[in-house]
Amino acid sequence: MSRIGRNPITVPSTVTVDVADNVVTVKGPNGTMHRTLPDGITISREGDVLTIDRVNDETMYRSLHGLTRTLVSNMVVGVTDGWSKELEIIGVGYRAAAGAPGVLDLALGFSHPVKFTAPEGITFEVPAATRVIIKGADKEVVGQVAASIRKLRKPEPYKGKGVRYLGERVARKAGKAAK
Q1: Which domains does the chain have, with CATH numbers?
Q2: How large a percentage of the chain has pLDDT more than 70?
Q3: Residue 66 to residue 81: CA distance in whole angstroms
């Protein structure tokens, strides 16, 4: 058995989980999420504990067992606590500001400001001009939005300017040597 796949998922009292026709629906204080289960993977519920099982030990089902358990667990955590990613902006004149609801205004050294619109379910917080917090219930979408913002101006290796994850270490290069 998969070590991750056989771990039970504890469901808080504020969350309801419904499984019908290979579709898992998780409802909680932060919203509702749906996911289609792969064929051969089943979910059983006993009280406030979910267990993920597989049909047999074929390689395909073994590989999907732990993945499905982690995805369902992330859904439960997302509708209760939510997920967040923090980005920091480094560079002279580089800054972020919260524009209209769901819009992030970024000054990243281009000739024009960049307006980044959040997908549904994502919110931005800008506690400082060089710090952006991305929050949402879906872990995949939060990570994708953070990666998309980082992609606008990746940290460069010579001066380290750009958008990076909080705590990310950028490998620096020496640059051009003088005579």
Answers
A1: 9-80 (3.90.930.12), 83-165 (3.90.930.12)
A2: 98
A3: 22
